[in-house]
Design brief:
The chain has 364 residues and is α+β, with helices and mostly antiparallel strands. 67% of the residues lie in helices and 10% in strands. α1 runs antiparallel to α2, α4 runs antiparallel to α5 and α8 packs antiparallel against α10.
């Protein structure tokens, strides 16, 4: 008689993962995906750079040819002159668009590179976290004490994805739509060049104005997305420039006061402080109904302290921090980011009496 089969022993695959293990796997998967995206962008930058060089040569050749035609304007056939102008405009347009594409890719490369570094640190920290931390995270999630039932890492990742979606919408509604309109205007110029030269000249003037306006919007957009001077000059010059732009665009009087030792410090901490101030100013502009904003930054040997205060309508701090669907980075996510770097973010506000936010962070 055959021996009855015993039930198979449970394998490790059937054992449910702890919340910390699940977060570790999600962070590792996100890291691998971001690294693939970074490699793809690196390849695109190489290809686009080569194309920009080629178009720059073509643009120079077209410009030189046009100068030769203009020097013999009385003897050059009209068809040749029209062809020269068309070739020069086409070369300029293609070069401008390709340079814009290259700048966008380079900006994406820097942003994803920083994101990869952040996710790598998160993944490494989760791998090294002791089981007691995993149990504490599970307990915190179970009793709801960790915000909306999610660990800080999850909220930060979700906030970053929401920010990416917002940026994609802004790109679609802003620069992408403007470039489409520019192409349509160029086609109008091309159609009326022979039949109505005066109208073509007017259309070209409008096109030049539109290109200038779109280029400025793209530059402003890139500055808001990631100011290059933050890497080159540091936090304080970038903040001064950003506050000036904020004053101009919002019409909301905003004063920045810097005290202490004006100096550079750890780049990623400069980024965090800039992002905190940027998000707080965005909140003031969108929700506070304030008539003035005061920003104070004090840098000493070991710490940086920031105060952002407005005289707006204020809000219930507990309700905002516990809101499940906060837009943008959100105050809760800002607190998490600052806390993960060992800093503190304190929010003092009430309905009808304005808001004061204090940030303190070690910078050495």
């Amino acid at each position: 008689m055959a021996n009855p089969k015993r039930p198979a022993a449970p394998t490790s695959a059937t054992v449910p993962m702890s919340p910390m293990q699940q977060l570790s796997e999600e962070a590792q998967a996100e890291l691998e995906q971001s690294q693939r995206e970074l490699k793809e962008i690196d390849l695109l930058i190489q290809q686009t750079s080569a194309e920009v060089d080629r178009l720059a040569q073509r643009n120079a050749q077209a410009a030189n040819h046009l100068k030769q035609l203009e020097s013999s304007l009385d003897t050059v056939p009209r068809v040749d002159l029209q062809t020269g102008y068309t070739a020069a405009l086409d070369a300029q347009k293609r070069l401008f668009m390709m340079r814009g594409q290259l700048e966008k890719l380079q900006s994406d490369q820097q942003n994803i590179g920083r994101y990869v570094a952040h996710v790598r640190k998160t993944a490494d920290a989760l791998k090294q976290a002791p089981q007691s931390s995993a149990a504490a995270a599970a307990s915190s999630s179970a009793d709801g004490s960790e915000g909306a039932g999610q660990p800080a890492v999850v909220r930060i990742i979700e906030a970053q994805e929401q920010e990416r979606q917002r940026l994609v919408r802004q790109l679609h509604d802003g620069p992408a739509q403007s470039l489409t309109n520019l192409i349509l205007q160029a086609e109008i110029c091309e159609r009326v060049f022979d039949s109505d030269p005066r109208r073509a000249r007017n259309e070209l003037g409008d096109l030049k104005t539109a290109v200038t306006s779109t280029f400025q919007k793209v530059r402003d957009y890139m500055f808001d997305l990631r100011p290059m001077m933050l890497d080159d000059l540091g936090l304080i010059p970038t903040l001064r420039r950003y506050v000036d732009n904020f004053n101009e665009k919002s019409g909301l009087p905003t004063v920045l006061t810097v005290t202490g030792n004006e100096r550079r410090f750890t780049p990623y901490k400069e980024v965090v402080i800039f992002r905190v101030i940027q998000e707080l100013l965005a909140n003031v502009r969108a929700h506070a109904h304030a008539s003035r904003v005061q920003i104070m930054l004090d840098i000493n040997e070991d710490t940086a302290q920031v105060m952002v205060e407005d005289n707006g309508s204020g809000f219930n701090v507990a309700e905002v921090l516990n809101a499940p669907n906060a837009s943008g980075l959100g105050l809760k996510t800002l607190k998490d980011r600052v806390g993960m770097l060992g800093g503190t973010l304190t929010i003092d506000s009430a309905v009808g009496r304005g808001t004061k936010v204090m940030l303190q962070m070690q910078i050495n």
